[in-house]
Amino acid sequence: MKFYPAVSASSAFPKDGMKDKDEVVDVMKTYAIENNFVLVTARSQIPILHLKCAKGGTYRGRRDGGENVKRSTETRRVGCPYLLRFSFRKKDQKYYLLRSLHEKEEYHNHPLSPKELSALHEGRMAKLTKEDITLTERLFKENAKTMKIQDLLNDERAPGNKLTTHDINNWRYSFDQRSDIRRSTTPDTNQDHRHKIKKEANIEGEIGIQQQRQKQQQQQQRKEEDLIGKEKE
Ligand SMILES: [Zn+2]
Predict the structure, then answer these.
(1) Per DSSP, which regions of 93-164 are E strands?
(2) Tell me: the pLDDT tens digits for 204-215?
(3) Which residue of 7, 34, 121, 126 has the smallest Cβ count within 10 Å?
(4) Measured CA distances, 7 to 34, 107, 181 (Å)
């Protein structure tokens, strides 16, 4: 069996820890995308936080909506052992990255390449530019057909990086949901409203880090080429 090492996670995580769990997850997800894989939360219950590769075999999507179900069937899980362990230390109210318990947790069992990344929904979405997002959301407002949006996005994109019609339809669905919520001011939707706004803020946060990602992409690709295919066993 081949194992593929990832660029050390400790290079992305501050040695003196991080206070906010969402921030830990954001920072590590960005690190993962830059290294051509996707991280998902495997376990999150203070003091434990585990993030694993989306191709890990034992991940079960939470039953909190259709999106996760779609995602877990789309993600080709190959039992990847990669795992990051964090621990919340009460004394200083911070999360710290722990050393791996098993050596295999530092390795993926699949290649890490832009091509592999774009086989995942999260990977394709993370590659969108700010312009792509502005264009697409404008087209949603105009009720443009999914195929038309796909064509327009692909004009400026390298082959293989395009969104599937499924990606676009999912995006349109959540975009329409957000627009509906914005128009609605009834008190009984307040809780849902806050949830949607938070979700939206996350999306905008992702747009913010997009610029940084693009700058580093070439550099990362070269690194990946060096790393891919290193045989461990
Ligand atoms: Zn993996």
Answers:
(1) 94-97, 107-108
(2) 445 545 555 555
(3) 7
(4) 10, 10, 41
Query: Other CB atoms closer than 10 Å to residue 193's CB: what's the count?
Result: 17
Cα 115 to Cα 55, 110, 118, 158, 159, distances in angstroms:
14, 12, 5, 11, 10
Per the CB < 8 A criterion, the answer to whether 28 and 134 are in contact is: no
Q: How far away, in angstroms, is 31 Cα from ligand 1 center?
A: 13
What's the 114 CA to ligand 1 centre distance in angstroms? Answer: 13
Examine residue 47 and say whether the peptide bond preceding it is cis (omega within 30 degrees of 0). yes
Whether this model's pTM surpasses 0.70: no
Tell me how far the alpha carbon of residue 25 lies from the centroid of ligand 1, in angstroms. 16
Position 231 pLDDT exceeds 60:
no
User: What is the per-residue pLDDT across 153-193, written as a single tens digit (0 to 9) for each?
Assistant: 886 555 655 789 999 999 999 999 988 887 775 555 455 55
Neighbours of 216 (CB within 10 A): 14
Q: How far is the CA of 42 from the centre of ligand 1 (A)?
A: 13
Ligand 1 center–CA 53 separation, angstroms: 5
Q: Is residue 59's pLDDT more than 50?
A: no
Compute the distance from residue 32 Cα to the ligand 1 centre, in Å: 10
